[in-house]
From TrEMBL:
Residues 1-224 form the Calcineurin-like phosphoesterase domain. It comes from the Bacteria. Signal peptide: none annotated. Gene3D superfamilies: 3.60.21.10. The lineage of its organism: Bacteria, Bacillati, Actinomycetota, Actinomycetes, Kitasatosporales. Transmembrane segments: none annotated. This is Metallophosphoesterase. It comes from Streptomyces luteireticuli. InterPro entries: Calcineurin-like_PHP, Metallo-depent_PP-like.
Length: 253
């Protein structure tokens, strides 16, 4: 059995169409939407609306963790525009292309920049969306919990710690624990390019130690200090920044 696993697609439709090649199923750990590309300031919803120069300035402020200035800048840019309507229109366009590219079968959960209420409109037969739920794939039980935790970035799908912990608890024991964010371990949470810690989950770490899955798979941190490490008996793997690599991580058994 082989399952290809991806995360942080961020608009990479071309490679997504081939992500299931050679596998019995595809697992996607979220962040389909591309709002702002930190490497290429011309790509994403924000530069499409306001230009690459404005996008570069926003990246600069966020990277410096000057979040109040970044919010003030974006408030000024959005003045006079219907922000919610413009973003939804752009997200819908991306979702139409991305969900059409998913192979059958695909098992997917949300990332922190995704918009869950829109997914039912675009998920076709053959794509199963799970959050706080389990699925049997090739005789193994996969558990899924999506989204991110609250941060100063205020991305679209951030949830309270207690809600996240409850969804993890609802999974019970699984063979493969799938999430968008990593467990709260420094080596897994630190982004070496952005030079900052992304937020991991302490509840996810506790669940790994308590339930001892074979694998814990996640994404979110694009350039982690460590892509893979063992926690107890569990192999923890950052499956990679699919937007830049275009290459899935293969799980075989």
């Amino acid at each position: 059995m082989r399952v290809n696993v991806i995360s942080d697609v961020h608009g990479n439709v071309r490679d997504l169409a081939r992500a299931g090649d050679g596998a019995d199923a595809l697992v996607c750990l979220g962040d389909l939407v591309l709002f702002l590309d930190y490497a290429d300031h011309s790509r994403g919803i924000f530069p499409e609306l306001f230009g690459a120069e404005a996008a570069g300035r926003l990246v600069e402020l966020r990277t410096a963790r000057r979040f109040d200035e970044a919010r003030e800048m974006t408030r000024a840019l959005w003045a006079g525009l219907d922000k919610d309507a413009e973003i939804e229109k752009a997200v819908r366009k991306q979702y139409a292309e991305l969900f059409a590219a998913f192979p059958t079968p695909t098992y997917a959960t949300y990332g922190n920049v995704d918009v869950p209420p829109l997914w039912p409109e675009y998920a076709r037969p053959g794509t199963t969306v799970l959050d706080g739920e389990r699925a049997e794939i090739g005789g193994w039980i996969f558990g899924f919990v999506g989204g991110g935790l609250r941060t100063p970035m205020r991305t679209p799908y951030e949830i309270d710690d207690e809600v996240y912990a409850a969804r993890l608890a609802a999974l019970g024991e699984v063979d493969v624990l799938c999430s968008h964010i990593p467990p709260d371990v420094p080596e897994l949470c630190y982004d070496t390019v952005a030079r900052r810690f992304e937020r991991g989950s302490s509840a996810l770490l506790e669940t790994i130690l308590a339930t001892r899955p074979k694998y814990a798979l996640f994404g979110h941190v694009h350039q982690p200090l460590a892509r893979r490490m063992r926690i107890g008996v569990t192999e923890c793997v950052n499956v990679g920044h699919f937007a830049s690599t275009g290459t899935p991580w293969a799980l075989e058994w």
